[in-house]
Every structure is written in structure tokens, then in C-alpha cells.
């Protein structure tokens, strides 16, 4: 077959079967087209490629563009199958006189036609072409070649169709499509705008997996978009405001991107704008505040003025949104403004290295008090049953962030704390109602979607998780007697236990944890902090409420696997410490009497406590020093309080659980601890570390004769003398 015949066959896409004209049309009459039937028969009976090409041309003549329905399209596929397109896509030799991509172009056109059927778009024979399709987007060639352009369009149509299937985004990401799209966009060749649109869709559908598979390429796109944003002088800068939040990485944002983004936002927000122009900029600023705190704002006069401007605009927007009679709350914008107000609060309460000077702090606190007054007034109306109809009943949930602010404010705002406490009964009942409704509807699994600072997908993004918003505020309030009593009276601890157990189930084996947003784990950690506050301040509640027994059982069964998981040490520390403190209060429970679960939990807790420090050699010295383990070193600032509390709690458990000391001895923790202390310089061990180690060793020695003997064999008395552990030295000197 000649090159002209191939080109004619490629016109299938322009006459009714291929890419752009394969969309479903009005249903045809039940009667079949006899001419089409005859040509389909010829296509099925074709014995070689030339006959298949000829039959495809005949089929093309038998159908008109737009006259093909889903059933006819499927019958054409049944006649062609995947074998022929597969050969076209993989062949490396074209007929004489034809460009080398002509066969591949025809193969992609056929594939694009098939992909217009959602069932075929999810077919394994389409999915296994994803890597090949990616190469077509980045292949070099004549940019003015019409056939090549048509092939690129068809390739994007295939990929877009796959992305629209339930598991399509995962297959595309696994097939390297994200990197290919990034390269296609950065190359600014034909179709690069389609590459960006598809990237946006994939990031919105599976952000975590996209960054995991193609972080360097996505960062390159972010750099390009940030630079364009900083330079833009036309309306494109407002469009970029909407795109950029999707491309902010879950890890560190490159400093050059932060500079460009801040400069672009400063120009936009410093101008007189309409709300549709200003709101995307506020949402982008809020996402940056959420990801980077205030580090993206430069120090000095320009930075402080910019921050003051941000907070002022946010406060004005909040008041306008909440005080306009009869208007719906613009949840995404208002929630973004809350994030910016939180940023202002953090800077106002920062004593060192604050971006703001004292007069600016005083002014901003006054402005934010007025905005929070509007929030509280709005919530008070809801608690009394006003303004919130069924249609807008979810609007106040974006307001609940205020519960985490007030406890950290300066003393002159203590009146706001009182008003927030008055709202607590309503907030607990409201959150409980939504939680129970979701539970009854069996859609709790849908609540794992993060309640984003600024939604990354258009339209409503409410995931139903009001409790996640309330956790930070409740963590503060459970420290104080008055608010804590209100929360307990309204049943908040029981609700939090249920919530914790449900969220924990999402992270258990059998669930795909890679799709969970970071906010799920952060929420679990905050729950642990609340429970820790209750253990310390309301121990009677832990003993009498059955929900804490269920919580203890979950902690015991979960910790052994958790301590082995890479990157989850902080959550493991929370679980271990909470479990150890609760074990002291629930020591008479049958579940803690040496059961397999309890033994597994304490073994895992010992692993967490014992692996925090190692002996590290120092240049020019014969004696090592005590140093943090690599896994602990980077997060020790967040971990150390939990570690010390865990050591203290373990010490308290030893006399209450007779089986624990022998179990610790079998783990060799006391022997290895003495060995570690004996191998490092005593001057390298801080006094608080000495006290923590001595507490554990003394209780183990007192509780069990074999422990004392093992410690003596490990030079325990000598080590105790070196470190001035008088209690341990005396205990080991006794029979």
C-alpha cells in the first residue's frame, strides 16, 4: 500500500471513526446500514495489512461524521480489534516515501477512536500503551507537520479518556505520564496547553502519587509557572493564581519559586482589584502560608508591609462574607482568609524574629479581633437556629478554625476565649451530628479527603470532617479546667475516640495509605495530644469511660507494626507514649495482664525508647559521645517531650505489671542501656537523660532479682557511680 493510501486511511479520524469525531451522536434507527455491514465483514475477513487498510477506507465512506453511535463504534472495534493498532504503534518501518511516524499516527488515531468508549478506555490493551503514548508527546519532529500534530492531539485524547476512568489516574501515573506531560509543557511545543490541563487533572485526582513519581519534573514546571507569574502583566496572572496552588509540593518549595510567587502576589494585592481578581490571589497566599508558614515572606520593611496587607485584606473579606445579609458564605475564600489570619496571629504572638514590629502587632490584633467577632456572632446565630437553612448548613464548618486561635492570643483578648467557650456545646453537637450522619450513610471513607486551605479542584470540596478542624482548638482547651469540663460534659472525648478509631482504620493494613493526605496522620497525632491532656488532667475519665478501653486495645495491637514503618516515627511516638500513660491507669485491666497484645505493645514501646540514642565516635578523642540516632535527629525537637514522657510512663508501669520487668530483661534493654552508658563519656550525657535512664533501671532492678543480677554483670554499679546515679547504685548493692 502506498503512502497516499496510508494518508487516506489516516483521514478516518476526520470522517467519523477517529479521534475528534467519535463522540456519541443521536441513536440510530434499529435497522442496520447494509453497506456498513458489508464493509465491516470485509474488515473482519481481511487477511493482511493492505486489506485491512482498504476495508477501513470503505468503512469511512459508509459512515458520516457525527452519525456514529456507541453501538456502531463498538462493532467497528470488534471488527478491528487491538492487534492491528498494536502493530501500527510499535512498527519502526514505514512504506517508501512516507514519514517514519505515519503508521504510529494511524495507530494512535484508531486508539483514540476506541478510547471514546469509556469501557474500552479502561481496557488492559489501552492501559499498556500508556508508556508508548508518553513518548509521542516528547518526540522531536517538524512542528508544522499536520500528521504529527494530529497524532499529538489523538494522544492527548487517549490519555484524557483514560484519566476519566475510575482507576485511570493511577495507571497514567504508574506509566510515567506525569513526567512526559511535564516535559511536553516545558518544551512549549504543539499541544503544551493540553499537557498542562491534563497535569492539573492528575494532580487534583492523585496529588501524592504524582509528586512521588515525578517530583523533579513537577518542580521544573513550578519554577516555570512561578517565573511566568512574576513577569505577567496581563490577565494571565489571575489564571496562574488558580493553577499555582496545585503545583505546590508536599515537601519544601524551592526558594526561587517563593521569591517569584511573593513578588507576583505583592503586585496583585497592592492594586485595586475586583473580588474575582483578588480572591484567587488570597487563596494562593493561603496555600503558601499553609505550606511554608511565614518563611516565604521576606524580612524587613517590605515583608512586614506585605504581611500586614495580607491580614488586613483577609479580615475585611471575612467580615464582608459573614455580615452580608442573606448571602451564602464563600467557603473557599473565607477559609483561605482564616489561614492568613492564623499567619497574622502566629506573627503577633512570636517573640523572636517576627516579621512585624510592635505597633504593627497592636494594629493587626485589633483588626483581627473585629473579624473574629464576626465569626463568633455568625456561629452564635447558628447555635440559636438562625440564618442556617438546610441549604447552607455546612457553611459554618469553614468557620470552626477559630477554635484553635483564641487560646494562643495575648491576654487582652481573653474575652474572646470566654465567648468561644460558650459556643463549645454547640460546636460539639454540630460536629457529632455530621459525624453520625456520615457514619449512617456509610461514607466515612470519603472523609479522608483533606479539607484544603484552598480547594485544589473546582466546586465544593467538603469532605464531612468537621472534627479535623476542631482538633487544634480542643487540644488547647483540654488543658484548661473550664473548657475541659464543658467538652467532657458534652461527650467530646467519646466522640474523639470513635473518630480516632475510624481514622486509624484507614491507615491499617489492607488500605492504600499512599492515597491518604498528610492531614489524616496529623489529625491522629493531634488526637493523641488531646488524649494525653485528658490522661494527665482527668485520669478518672480514662478509668471509667469504656471508650478508652477500646482505644487502649487499638494502641496495643497497632504499635508493633507502626514502629517498623519508615517515616512514621512521630506518630509511633505519640501512640507509644499515650499507650504507656494509659497503661498506668488501666493496669488492672485483663487486657494488660501479660496477654500477647500487651507484650507486643511493650516490646514495641521498648524499641521506640531504646533506639533514640547511640554512641558516636568523635575525632581526636578516644571516647565516644552520646548522640541521637539518625532517624530521631531530624525530628527530635518534636519528639523529645514525648520520649521523656514515655520513659517516665514506662517507669511507672514496671511496679504495676509484674510480668513487665522479666519481659524487659528478655529484650536486653537494661543490659544494652548500661553498655551504652559505659561506652560514652559521662560528660556527653545531659542530666535529664541521666535521670530518665536511672528511673527505668531502678524500677527494673527493684522489681526483679534477675534484672539486678544482669545489671551487676554489665558493670551496673560502676556505671552508676560514674554517672552519680545514687539510687541505682544503692539498689544494685542490695542482695
TrEMBL record:
GO cellular component, one term: dendrite
Superkingdom of the organism of origin: Eukaryota
GO biological process: neuron projection development; regulation of neuronal synaptic plasticity
Signal peptide: none
One Pfam short name: Neurochondrin
Family membership noted in the UniProt record: Belongs to the neurochondrin family.
Protein name as it appears in the record: Neurochondrin
Source species: Cnephaeus nilssonii (Northern bat)
Higher taxonomy: Eukaryota, Metazoa, Chordata, Craniata, Vertebrata
Amino acid at each position: 500500500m502506498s503512502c497516499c493510501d496510508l494518508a487516506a486511511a489516516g483521514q478516518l479520524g476526520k470522517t467519523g471513526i477517529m479521534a475528534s469525531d467519535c463522540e456519541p451522536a443521536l441513536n440510530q434507527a434499529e435497522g442496520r446500514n447494509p453497506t456498513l455491514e458489508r464493509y465491516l465483514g470485509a474488515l473482519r475477513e481481511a487477511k493482511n495489512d493492505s486489506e485491512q487498510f482498504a476495508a477501513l477506507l470503505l468503512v469511512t465512506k459508509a459512515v458520516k461524521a457525527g452519525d456514529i453511535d456507541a453501538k456502531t463504534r463498538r462493532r467497528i472495534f470488534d471488527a478491528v480489534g487491538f492487534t492491528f493498532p498494536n502493530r501500527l504503534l510499535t512498527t519502526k518501518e514505514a512504506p517508501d516515501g512516507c514519514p517514519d511516524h505515519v503508521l504510529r499516527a494511524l495507530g494512535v488515531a484508531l486508539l483514540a477512536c476506541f478510547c471514546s468508549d469509556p469501557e474500552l478506555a479502561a481496557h488492559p490493551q489501552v492501559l499498556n500503551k500508556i508508556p508508548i503514548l508518553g513518548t509521542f508527546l516528547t518526540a522531536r519532529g517538524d512542528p508544522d507537520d499536520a500528521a504529527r500534530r494530529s497524532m499529538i492531539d489523538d494522544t492527548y485524547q487517549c490519555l484524557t479518556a483514560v484519566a476519566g476512568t475510575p482507576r485511570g489516574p493511577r495507571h497514567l501515573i504508574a506509566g510515567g505520564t506525569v513526567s512526559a506531560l511535564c516535559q511536553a509543557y516545558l518544551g512549549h511545543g504543539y499541544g503544551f496547553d493540553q499537557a498542562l490541563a491534563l497535569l492539573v487533572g492528575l494532580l487534583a485526582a492523585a496529588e501524592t502519587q504524582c509528586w512521588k513519581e515525578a517530583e523533579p519534573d513537577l518542580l521544573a514546571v513550578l519554577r516555570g509557572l512561578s517565573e511566568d507569574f512574576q513577569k505577567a502583566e496581563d490577565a494571565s496572572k489571575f489564571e496562574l493564581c488558580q493553577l499555582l496552588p496545585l503545583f505546590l509540593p508536599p515537601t519544601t518549595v524551592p526558594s526561587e519559586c517563593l521569591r517569584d510567587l511573593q513578588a507576583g502576589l505583592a503586585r496583585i494585592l497592592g492594586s485595586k482589584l475586583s473580588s474575582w481578581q483578588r480572591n484567587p490571589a488570597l487563596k494562593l497566599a493561603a496555600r503558601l502560608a499553609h505550606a511554608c508558614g511565614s518563611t516565604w515572606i521576606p524580612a524587613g520593611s517590605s515583608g512586614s508591609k506585605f504581611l500586614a496587607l495580607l491580614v488586613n485584606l483577609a479580615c475585611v473579606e471575612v467580615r464582608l462574607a459573614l455580615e452580608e445579609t442573606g448571602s451564602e458564605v464563600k467557603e473557599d475564600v473565607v477559609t483561605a482568609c482564616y489561614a492568613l489570619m492564623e499567619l497574622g496571629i502566629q506573627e503577633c504572638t512570636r517573640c523572636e524574629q517576627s516579621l512585624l514590629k510592635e505597633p504593627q502587632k497592636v494594629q493587626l490584633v485589633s483588626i483581627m479581633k473585629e473579624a473574629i467577632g464576626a465569626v463568633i456572632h455568625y456561629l452564635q446565630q447558628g447555635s440559636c437556629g438562625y440564618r442556617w437553612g438546610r441549604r447552607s448548613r455546612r457553611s459554618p464548618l469553614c468557620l470552626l478554625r477559630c477554635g484553635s486561635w483564641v487560646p494562643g492570643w495575648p491576654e487582652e483578648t481573653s474575652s474572646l476565649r470566654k465567648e468561644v467557650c460558650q459556643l463549645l456545646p454547640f460546636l460539639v453537637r454540630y460536629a457529632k451530628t455530621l459525624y453520625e450522619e456520615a457514619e449512617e450513610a456509610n461514607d466515612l471513607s470519603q472523609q479522608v479527603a483533606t479539607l484544603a486551605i484552598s480547594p485544589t479542584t473546582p466546586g465544593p470540596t467538603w469532605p464531612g470532617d468537621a472534627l479535623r478542624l476542631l482538633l487544634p482548638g480542643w487540644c488547647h482547651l483540654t488543658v484548661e479546667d473550664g473548657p475541659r469540663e464543658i467538652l467532657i460534659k458534652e461527650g467530646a472525648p467519646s466522640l474523639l475516640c470513635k473518630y480516632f478509631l475510624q481514622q486509624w482504620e484507614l491507615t491499617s493494613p489492607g488500605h492504600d495509605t499512599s492515597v491518604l493526605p498528610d492531614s489524616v496522620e496529623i489529625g491522629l497525632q493531634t488526637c493523641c495530644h488531646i488524649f494525653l491532656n485528658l490522661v494527665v488532667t482527668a485520669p478518672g475519665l480514662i478509668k471509667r469511660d469504656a471508650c478508652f478501653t477500646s482505644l487502649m486495645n487499638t494502641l496495643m495491637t497497632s504499635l508493633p507494626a507502626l514502629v517498623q514503618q519508615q517515616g512514621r516515627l512521630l506518630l509511633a511516638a505519640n501512640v507509644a507514649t499515650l499507650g504507656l500513660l494509659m497503661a498506668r491507669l488501666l493496669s488492672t485491666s485483663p487486657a494488660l495482664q501479660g496477654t500477647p497484645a500487651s507484650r507486643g505493645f511493650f516490646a514495641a514501646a521498648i524499641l521506640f525508647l531504646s533506639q533514640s540514642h547511640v554512641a558516636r565516635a568523635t575525632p581526636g578523642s578516644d571516647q565516644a559521645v552520646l548522640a541521637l540516632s539518625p532517624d530521631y535527629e531530624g525530628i527530635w525537637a518534636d519528639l523529645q517531650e514525648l520520649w521523656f514522657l514515655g520513659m517516665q510512663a514506662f517507669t511507672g508501669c514496671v511496679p504495676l505489671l509484674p510480668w513487665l520487668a522479666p519481659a524487659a530483661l528478655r529484650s536486653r534493654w537494661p543490659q544494652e542501656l548500661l553498655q551504652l552508658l559505659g561506652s560514652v563519656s559521662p560528660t556527653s550525657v545531659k542530666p535529664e537523660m541521666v535521670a530518665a535512664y536511672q528511673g527505668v533501671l531502678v524500677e527494673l532492678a527493684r522489681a526483679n532479682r534477675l534484672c539486678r543480677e544482669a545489671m551487676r554483670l554489665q558493670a551496673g554499679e560502676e556505671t552508676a557511680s560514674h554517672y552519680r546515679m545514687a539510687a541505682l547504685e544503692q539498689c544494685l548493692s542490695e542482695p
